[in-house]
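This week, look over our next protein:
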Amino acid sequence: MRRSAATGAVALVAVILTAAVSGCGGSAAAGESPLHLPAADVPPAESGEAGMEESHERSGELTVLSSRITEAVGVEDFGQSWIEDGALHVAVTTEAAAATATEAGAIAHVVRFSEADLMEAARSVVAWTAAHRTATGGLGRITLDALGERIVVGVDPGRRDQVATAFDATVAGGVEVVFEATGGPAGTR
């Protein structure tokens, strides 16, 4: 079966969807700070069904907080956000953005690349792959890793070393690109 440029498009859509998970909308009620969600008002998750509901509620609140922080620091300074051990972590590119995130209740990490920088690097990798389809065999999932200051690209296990050797690192604009063996190119099974 001949792979088309659609395979690259599928991979890029996967990148966009992966990146979009870190921000979904929310707005503060009148009189509230648009960033603050008081962590002390939300009890730690308990076991059982009630604990699961509280955990889901807390995750939803942290997702809203992530969106508010993203809006406050701007896309040029936002790297990525994730929930770890019940706390919101936010990767940002400046100390000022880190202060904003910390003040809002998140754990801030200062990194070199914004999400926009990582997305641009991912688009460049997709374009390079399309131009070198014979060597690469196509891409699997692309994951943005702001904290690791890299993007991780899934490739066919039988071609991982070949792709890594052939890859022109200057394509990604200084962002580290790591190739991991996966189940194969996106869209094939």
